[in-house]
Every structure is written in C-alpha cells, then in structure tokens.
Amino acid sequence: MTDARPIAVFDLDGTLADTAHRQHFLERSPRDWPGFFAAAPQDAPLPEGVALAHEAAADCALVYLTGRPERCRADTEAWLREHGLPGGPVRMRRDHDRRPAVRTKLEALRGLRSGRTVRMLVDDDPLVCAEAERAGFRVVEADWGRTSAELRAGQEREGRT
Length: 161
Description:
The protein is of the alpha/beta class. The protein is built from six helices and seven strands.
C-alpha cells in the first residue's frame, strides 16, 4: 500500500542539525568542505526542529531535503536514526552538483508536488524559503539555528550545502 499522506519536507543543516561547531571550517580560504562535512555526525539536534518533525509526522510523511552531497548519506542517515527523528527518505545533492540551494531545492519540491501534496517546507535558508513561497509552497522558516555568512555563501554561491 502506498502512503497517500501529505508530505512535510525538512532541511537538515540549521533546521534539524546544529552546525555551529563546524562552521569554522568555512572561515578559511579556501573553505574546508571535507572537514565541514566530516564533522556533521557530531552535530547536536536543534530541539525546535526535531519537535516540529515529530509533530508533522503525526499526519504527514516526512522527506528530508538537504544540500549535503550524496557521499554524506551514511553519516546523515545514521545521525537521523541516532537522534530519533521520524523515518523518511533523504534527498541529497549529487556529489559534484554545485547549483545554488534555491535551485536544487525548488526543483526537488516541484518533483515531490507532482505526485503528492506537499504540506510544508521547513528550511533555514531565507532565499529557499522566499522562492518556495513564491512557488506556492507553505513554508516554515527555521530561525532557531545559527547559520554563518560563510555557510550562506556555501549554500547560494558555491552550491555546497
């Protein structure tokens, strides 16, 4: 039987996972992306995002939509399990895809919407949130994390997360 419930889409970094302890990898020139992603398993969960994910899972199927590269899949899925997040597929960026997060995430959201109702997107990136709203998605902007200017640049200009 196929799950016909609406979908709630959750970002990871800055929404569910606290990246503050690893943002220093992005303050260097050049940015240390391998170090940044290698430290992800030590992220603390962000209580506000985790609570919202559990609340949404009561009547929605969850999809995790992240700009993390595919090579981080095992660590990412282990982190979600370790912190007791509801199950759901994880949509990740192809390893060498450097398009801006706003482009990759909107493309993924439109694909999800073609087959099911997307109840909401929860993301910390203001550009992603604004574009998703313009495209007709209900958005919850995750303003509870601490995202540095360097991480924002990585999301939007460097297509890294």
